[in-house]
Amino acid sequence: DQQVKQNSPSLSVQEGRISILNCDYTNSMFDYFLWYKKYPAEGPTFLISISSIKDKNEDGRFTVFLNKSAKHLSLHIVPSQPGDSAVYFCAASYDSASKIIFGSGTRLSIRP
Amino acid sequence: DTAVSQTPKYLVTQMGNDKSIKCEQNLGHDTMYWYKQDSKKFLKIMFSYNNKELIINETVPNRFSPKSPDKAHLNLHINSLELGDSAVYFCASSQVRRRYTEAFFGQGTRLTVV
Predict the structure, then answer these.
(1) Segment A75-96 mean pLDDT
(2) What residues in A contact B40, CB-CB < 8 Å?
(3) Distance CA B20, CA B42 (A)
(4) Which of residues 36-55 of A touch B (CB under 8 A)?
């Protein structure tokens, strides 16, 4: 039972354009959402997060949007750069869970 | 200065063997985890330890036994290895007492059972 879903396994975006990665969740108890970036042969690295009391969090080129009523979040990267090519994992947790649940990842490729 | 380090990075072994993967964190976190990334690339939690105490065991076969000698270490021992155990195993840590905190991951151990 996938509580966090990333329905697009891959995404290709031209350099300089906006990349939008989507994520859906089913557990209404989730109150903290995270995005991780993963390069081959490395561990996931934390990118940006948002708590359920907010609907937007911005950090440089990265912005995460949360739509609680739709149980949907998205990561916007603008402008996209070649170094952004990686697998992006959406993740979620709630206070008493003591664990972070991950989606299946979306492979982002930035083409010149 | 590596925050979460796990060894070895690669491990190739035969079916039926017993092997261990070690993990250490120097972040002073109170919680450590083991995640498994299978062939379909899903990252699934296996275990979670808080202050050396097991708090999550996600229906993992009992051939897998985590050991936490102290808050900074969480080792994973696997008995009677099977072909299906081939995967990348990630150790992670976080400070659960502080709400809204992210987990930091090690670089992964690619286990191949032949």
Answers:
(1) 93
(2) 104
(3) 22
(4) 36, 41-46, 49, 51
Residue A84 phi/psi, 5-degree rounding, is: -80, -10
Interface size, chain A vs chain B, as Cβ–Cβ contacts under 8 Å: 53
Cβ count within 10 A of residue A58: 12
Q: Which residues pair with A20 in a beta bridge?
A: A76
Which residue does chain A place closest to B54, by CA atoms? A98
Nearest chain B CA: its distance from A95 CA (Å): 7
Give the 3-state DSSP-derived string for A51-74, with helices as H, strands as E and coil as C. Answer: ECCCCEEEECCEEEEEECCCCEEE
Chain A neighbors of B48, CB-CB under 8 A: 98-99
> Minimal CA–CA distance to B49: which of B20, B69, B79?
B69
Q: Consecutive sets of 10 residues in chain B, 114 residues long: mean pLDDT of each?
A: 90 97 95 90 88 82 92 95 96 79 92 97
Q: How many residues does chain A have?
A: 112
**Measured between CB atoms, does B98 come within 8 Å of chain A?**
no
**Does residue A92 carry a pLDDT above 80?**
yes
* Residue for token pair 């995460």: A64
pLDDT of residue B97: 63
Q: Which residue of B has its CA nearest to A49?
A: B102
Name the DSSP class of A49.
E
| Closest residue of chain B to A51, computed from CA coordinates | B100
> What length does chain B have?
114
**Distance between CA A35 and CA A84 in Å, rounded?**
13
- Contacts with A105 from chain B: Cβ below 8 Å: 41, 43
